[in-house]
Design brief:
The chain has a single domain, classed as Na+/H+ antiporter like domain (Na+/H+ antiporter like fold, Up-down Bundle), CATH 1.20.1530. The chain contains 16 helices and no strands.
């Protein structure tokens, strides 16, 4: 009796240190620490650290640490997203039309239905309507972290499905930010397009200097920052100009992606999470937790995501549009669709953009994001834990407990 329990405990402990699982657990830890600090005696210092003015905004518009993180540091996050998307489209999961049909359809439904749920819960309230896109995104690191905790229980095709849906979600989130949360300023927008054109020409001319692309990307970021389009869009645009192959045959894109992914996962996103997840509950009050905005965001993530994605998958399979993912049961597919309700990074980011002048609504949105993401993570884990097979229970020759 003791030995199987010990063996399971050791296995679960080892699972925490697998890359996917650790990234997800790190985000959870960061969110918890941010909430604790924001509701502690050092709350004022926490707020001043990120929102205290560093200089006059007329001197340079990024005049707080919070703005540097959200508009500057997060450009690296979006750059990595852009690299990943380009790689997937050229020779990855999105390169095969048949393979990408189901996750693309599911991702579209998984963005549309949460918006509808949000509008229903808020009654179409004009004051909070700008936040309807908040529950539309899935956090790749968080969701894959939960999958990582489950080890080999989750079938490979479902892992691939979740990853692809999350990537398409990211594309949708970037489009939403560019279209709905930007107010273009023509002169700087023209300058941005000119720099982007130069980067595209560098790609066509097969320029093999990574340093030149980095320099051009920084110039593009500065132009986009002043153009009225959110500065992080520069990260995605710059990434799309990075060549897959250098003249010597090496992959510049993959070299950049491999170099930046650890920094992105263990520094950029955790810093963003710590700076944005902290909410002072005392300022909102208990009644504030039941306001339409946090309820709508949480409902969009928990109900809207799984309803939209699972319904789309089921209908697509039943109508013969695509086959069901091989070796997967409907309860397993349902479990993965629940995990798509983990919004965290992108949702927090969109929440900041949706209500730029109203800290109360931003904090209410954060409460909804954290609540909905936590429920989705726990519920998805439980469903997958009890509906999937258990190949990891077989003896592992490398397991210290035999």
């Amino acid at each position: 009796m003791v030995q199987p329990i010990l063996k399971t405990a050791v296995r679960n402990f080892k699972a925490l240190f697998k890359a996917d699982a650790f990234e997800g657990m790190l985000l959870i830890a960061v969110a918890i620490v941010a909430m604790v600090v924001a509701n502690s005696a050092v709350n004022h210092a926490y707020h001043e650290l990120f929102h205290g003015e560093l200089w006059d905004r007329n001197l340079f518009k990024l005049n707080t640490l919070h703005l540097w993180i959200n508009d500057g540091l997060m450009a690296i996050f979006f750059f990595v997203v852009g690299l990943e998307v380009k790689r997937e489209i050229i020779n990855g999961n999105l390169s095969d039309p048949k393979a990408r049909t189901l996750p693309v359809l599911a991702a579209i439904a998984g963005m549309a239905v949460p918006v509808l749920v949000f509008l229903v819960v808020t009654g179409g309230d004009a004051q909070v309507r700008a936040g309807m896109a908040i529950p539309a995104a899935t956090d790749i690191a968080f969701a894959m972290g939960v999958i990582g905790l489950l080890g080999t229980r989750v079938p490979g095709p479902l892992r691939l499905f979740l990853l692809t849906v999350a990537i398409v979600d990211d594309i949708g989130a970037v489009a939403i930010i560019a279209i709905f949360y930007s107010t273009p300023y023509l002169p700087w927008l023209i300058a941005s397009l000119a720099v982007l054109g130069v980067m595209i020409a560098m790609n066509r001319m097969r320029v093999g200097s990574m340093a030149l692309y980095v320099l051009a990307a920084l110039v593009l970021w500065y132009c986009v920052l002043n153009s009225g389009v959110h500065a992080t869009i520069a990260g995605v645009l710059a990434a799309l100009t990075i060549p897959m192959r250098k003249p010597n045959g090496d992959s510049m894109l993959e070299d950049m992606e491999h170099a930046l992914v650890p920094w992105n996962a263990y520094i950029v996103v955790p810093i963003f999470g710590f700076a944005n997840a902290g909410v002072d509950i005392s300022e909102i009050g208990i009644d504030g937790l039941l306001e339409p905005l946090p309820l709508a965001v949480a409902a969009g993530l928990v109900v809207g995501k799984q309803l939209g994605i699972f319904s789309c998958v089921w209908a697509s399979v039943k109508l013969g549009i695509v086959p069901k993912p091989p070796g997967c049961t409907w309860p397993e597919i349902w479990g993965v669709t629940i995990l798509c309700g983990i919004g965290f990074t992108m949702s927090l980011f969109i929440g900041e953009l949706a209500f730029p002048t109203n800290r109360l609504l931003i904090d209410e949105a954060k409460i909804g994001i954290l609540t909905g993401s936590l429920i989705s993570a726990v519920l998805g884990y439980v469903v997958l834990r009890f509906t999937t097979t258990h190949p990891e229970m077989k003896d592992d020759p490398y397991d210290p407990v035999v």
